[in-house]
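Re: weekly structure request thread

Next one in the queue (281 aa):
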Amino acid sequence: MATIAFVVHPERPEAATIARQAITWLEARGHRGVQVIDASPVGAAPSFDQTVDLAVSLGGDGTMLRTVALATAHSTPVLGVNFGRLGYLTEIEPDRLEHALERFLSGDFGVEERVTLEVTLHRAGDDDTGRARSVIVLNEATVEKTVPGHTIRVAASIAGRPFVTYAADGLLVATPTGSTAYNLSARGPILSPGLRAVVLTPVSAHMLFDRPLVLEPEQWVRLELLGPLEAVLVLDGQSADVLQPGDAVVCRVGPAPARLVTFGPRDFFSILRARFHLADR
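Done, posted below.
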C-alpha cells in the first residue's frame, strides 16, 4: 500500500476537488491519500513524514516550492500538477493526474534531483550556534532592503574568506533551479538545472562591481548585514525574518537534493523557450 500526500493551494477550490477525486481513486485501489492544505510559510514544521511515498503539489510554482520544502527532509519525491500561470516546475496538467498516479504506482517514472540551499540565520552577538535555525529552499535566499529609496550594505564572504561589501537593494543566493526565478529578473545567469553550483547575484547594486558570481557547490556564502538600516530575509519568495545590523545569513548547498518525479526526459531549453515565449530568429 502506498501513501500519497496532496498539497493543495488554499485559494484554488478546483485543486481541492481534484485532490479529493484522486484520494477516492487511490482508496478504491487499496492505497491511502492525505490532503494537506498549503497554508504554511517556507520553513514551517513538516506536515507529513517518511511514511509518505509521494507528495503531489496542486497549485503553481509557489505551492511546488513549499511542497519541496516539506518533502526534502525525508527524500520524498514530488510530483507537480500545474494550477498556476507559469508552471515552470510542474510536470503535468490536472487532467493527467490519475494517469500519472497509475504510472507512479507501477514504477514507470523517473526522478530528477535538484540542488537545494540550506539557509541558516545567525543573530548578532548570539554565540550559541545550536540556536540557529536552518531552512531548506529550492530557489533562492535573498537579503533585501525594507526602506524605499535607500540601499543596504551587506558584507559577503565566500567559503570563510571576506569578499566584498555590497551597497545594493539586495543580494541573493540562488540554485540552478532558482536561476530562472528572481535571479533572472536581477539579470543573473541562467544555469542548467542539473548543475551543482550556486549563484551570488546583487540586486540593483549601487557600485561599479555589480556582476553575479557562479560558485562551486562547496563555496558556501555568508551575508552579514551592516548598519544602519534593517533588511528582510526572503526564502523562495516568502518573507522569513527581519534582519538587524550584525545579523548574518549563511547559505550552503543542502544536505539532500529535491527529488522531482518525471515521466520522460525533460528538455530544459525547450521548456525555457516555451515558458518565456522565445521566438525563433
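The first helix runs from residue 13 to 27. The chain has a mean pLDDT of 90.
Next request, please.
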